[in-house]
Amino acid sequence: MISSTRLLKLLLPASVFCFLLLSCDSEEDKKGRFLLKGNNKMMENDYEGAVEFYDEALDLDENFADAYYNRGLAFSKMTDYQRAISDFTKAIAISPEFADAYYHRGIANFDNGANYNALSDADRLISITPQDYRGYFLRGLVQETLGDYETALQAFDQAINQDSTIADLYVNKATIHYYQGSIESAESNLKIAERLHPEEANIYNLRSLLAFEKDSITAALKWVNKAIELHAGQAYFYNNRGLYYLFDGQMEAGIEDINFSLKQNSKNLFALRNKGIYYYFSGDKPLAIKYLKEVYSKDPSIKLTKKYLELAQEM
């Protein structure tokens, strides 16, 4: 459910412009050219190729903070969070007030499940650049994950005070309101997000969940299909559509989407819950109990889990 911005702010040193304008060829220019080549690979989504060029730059200057930072971005894109965190940390050691490095290290920590490290990065970013919305945004993401919804909402509001044009901030506020059952507040924030960025897929995914809460399966399917059109690779969208298909009586279409989602993330508790619901609807008591019991033991707060576990046990 969580949407997090990952701004790819690649850094380019002044030495590159010396190369472009004067064709000078000092060590500074060489490392700058390697950085530029790495950045070009990043833009081509060739992250391994980018890492190779950043390695070349660092071979010339082991204290090249921008190269560590950009290589950290490449590792993040490759979901190699440990190496990303290591590179961002090296960039910060060289440049202690490197705000972008704190932000992206925080995101990498967050994606790696190190919530309190991410929170520490958010706090440090806020202390360095209190006018930067990203520190509050990161704080909100972590507090949302920790279940401290009120603190998360306050953080997102602080982020909006710094920059009210970021659609993700409103989507995340809407997500929390959805968790809290405040449907009108969720819908209100989604309207703002859509006005700011109508191509943001998470808006329509969350709208589908709100429609499902109202037992409007047709509307839920319409919205989640729009989300998938905008971002076909997001596994959570298929998992949600799979759930809606189950409640629409389209059992095989439902389990196909759920299994597709599980292939992307076999530990997704929402997908495992949906698989349990599928087996309940299919009349398979042992498998329904197996999946629903596993989910309930790990997170009893996930909606529908307790209800369908009890129904399965009564079969």
UniProtKB/TrEMBL annotation:
Residues 1-18 form the signal peptide. Keywords: Repeat, Signal, TPR repeat. InterPro entries: TPR-like_helical_dom_sf, TPR_rpt, Ycf3. The keyword tRNA processing does not apply. It comes from the Bacteria. The keyword Iron does not apply. Coiled coil: none annotated. TPR repeats lie at residues 31-64, 65-98, 133-166. Pfam families: TPR_11, TPR_16, TPR_8. SUPFAM superfamilies: TPR-like (SSF48452). This is Tetratricopeptide repeat protein. It comes from Echinicola soli.
